Sequence to fold (187 residues):
Amino acid sequence: MAIKVQMPISRENARKLRAGDSCLLSGVIYTARDAAHKRLCELVEQGKELPMDMKDATIYYVGPTPAKEGQAIGSAGPTTSYRMDAYSPMLIEQGETGMIGKGKRSPEVVAAMKKFGAVYFGAIGGCGALLSKCIKKAEVIAYEDLGAEAIRRLEVEDLPVIVVIDAEGNNLYETGRGAYLESLENK
Fold:
C-alpha cells in the first residue's frame, strides 16, 4: 500500500520514509535540471536569494514537453539524476528534503542526505505521459531562458514514486539487487 505524502516534506517526515516505500506525493514540488542547479548553486555561493524557498523543498529532475491544450504540462518523465550530483549536496544543506529522478546517486549526495535528512525518490522513466496526469498546475518561476529546463513550481496529486535512498542511506538499488540474488540462490 502506498504512503500518502503531503509536500513539502519536513526533514522529520523525510527521515520516517524507508528505502522501498511506495509513495503518492501531493502538494508543491519544483522542477530543475543541471543547468538550473548550477545557477542555484552559484546564487548560494554569492550569498544571493534563491528563486524558491529551499526549506523542505523537493526537486523533480524533469524537462517537460510543452503542454497540450487543456493540460497543465506535457510529458514529464524523470531525468537521470547523477547529472545533478555535483550540486545536490549544497542544495540539501540549504534545506532541500526530496529529490525525484532515476538512476544512482554519488556517495557525496548520500552523505548529505544522511547528514541533513533528505530522501531520493525514483520515478519510472518512460512513463512521462502518465506521470504528467498527476501534475495539476505548472508555472515557470525562474530561468525561462532554459526552456524545458526552466524551474517550475508544480502542484501534484498522487504522483507515484518509490523511496530509492532513504535518509539513513539505505539504497534500494543495493538491497533490492541483493534480495533478488538471494532469491535465485534459494531456488
Remarks:
- The longest strand covers residues 151-165.
- Helices lie at 11-14, 34-45, 88-93, 107-116, 128-132, 172-185.
